[in-house]
Design goal:
By secondary structure, the chain is an alpha/beta fold. It has one domain: Rossmann fold. Helix content is about 45%, strand content about 15%. The chain is built from 8 helices and 7 strands; from the N terminus they run βαβαβαβαβααβααβ. It has a 7-stranded parallel β-sheet, sandwiched between helices. Helix 1 links the parallel strand 1 and strand 2. The longest helix is centred in the middle third of the chain and has 29 residues. Bound molecules: NADP nicotinamide-adenine-dinucleotide phosphate. NADP nicotinamide-adenine-dinucleotide phosphate binds next to helix 1 and strand 2.
Length: about 250
Amino acid sequence: MKVENKTVLITGASRGIGKSIAEEFAKNGANVAFTYLSSVEKGQALEVELAQYGTKIKGYRSDASDYASAEQLVTDVVADFGNLDILINNAGVTRDTLLMRMSEEQWDDVLRINLKSVFNLTKAATKPMMRAKAGSIINITSVVGLMGNAGQANYSASKAGILGFTKSVAKELGSRNIRSNAVAPGFIETEMTGELNEEQLKEWTKSIPLKRAGQAKDIANACLFLGSDASSYITGQVLVVDGGMLM
Ligand code: NAP
């Protein structure tokens, strides 16, 4: 699971899963570049917090859903860190509502922030990865991209889109030694799921064989594996981390 001296770029790390991924990579000796958008204070605080691990750390305020910003971000990261070994596309949002009530804006926002961002960053990051003839891309999808969920037609579609994208990139870039995999979290306790009410929480937990919600660190550990050389013969896969919910 060695990621020592590797440079990782993580989108959306001001809180939740992205923050935990940044912490675990820094603890394990990686140089960490990460982004945030609206939570500027939290992003700046994370840069200070991660400094204790002694590797190079830098936070960037960058909108993953904007193509030009994504290209600029990768240029800046390569200039600051010298290389880019691992990209983790984590930034994501929900705009949940039933299809009958879903506005065009709610659809467009979720597809742009969750799916187009993955295209933006991956396209930009593959340039330095191709030059280095190595790279690992990890896309955070969701179990609902595999099974659907009432009230999340936009979100499920964006996460299912990530799966097709992940596998296509694996086929296109395998010959360049660039791997592309997805991690599909189940129910993980973060601010995103904090929006659910007591009743919804009970329903989710009932359907999980391990009978508990997952923690952000469970997803970070899966990313450590897929980012490290321990997974060097794994590409085009979806690693489901859901306490057995989807079996
Ligand atoms: P979260 O707590 O809501 O955090 C989302 C992060 O994304 C924040 O750091 C936010 O940064 C960032 N972000 C949002 N829009 C952005 C943009 N346009 N550009 C850059 N960053 C942006 O969510 P989470 O629960 O940690 O989820 C992280 C990922 O896991 C998401 O892709 C989510 O879909 C996926 N996931 C989560 C669960 C779960 O149970 N929690 C389950 C399955 C999948 P700012 O606050 O700075 O804007």
